[in-house]
Amino acid sequence: MKIALAQLQSESGNIKANIKKHLDYIDKAAAAKADFIVFPELSLTNYEPHLARELAFKQNDSKLTIFKDYSTKYKLAIGLGLPLKLNNKIHIAMAIFKPKSDIQFYFKQYLHEDEHPFFHPKKSDSIIQFQKKKIKLAICYEITVEEHLQDIILEKVDFYVASVAKHKKGMEDAEHRLRFISDNYKIPVLLVNNTGKADEMNCCGNSFAYNRYAEKIESLNAEESLLIINAE
Q: Where does the CN hydrolase domain lie (predicted)?
């Protein structure tokens, strides 16, 4: 399976511009014959907790239809980040598009303490299946939570993919953690970060992938880029 990590700089609050940028990356991933493309945390709005309520999407939001169309057009799975409103609660979510399928949503189940004033956690299945592979999803802070890893062995997960918004120190800690997960569970791990300003911090990019032997196989610098991984 080829997995694309879309490391980009989202514009804070500019959903229209961010959708266009997402579609450009999806075009590039499809041209590279990727099977699954993953974007950073809250990529459609940028990571801006203070703006999340006013920018939140609904489950049946018409603005997401284009991604369903692109998924089917390219026979490509897509995972992108957005704030989602359910019953007047705002959640950090990943919208997952698969060809000729309804949209799935993975909700961030474990929040950092700074996020509680703005978001609510929500239990959901963190494992998706595509092309006979099981992919375990994590959103940022969840990579640190032991309970979030409990189903990896039981479900015989093939890949672990994290979508984050982190500054330099946070990325150093995240890489150490994902290397541990790779080594402990003997699975490939991939992480995509955004770049540029988000919530008054400078996100540093540096997205990466490790193989099942805890060896780094690919990484990016702080610039916008698309990383294609032959994940095996």
A: 1-232
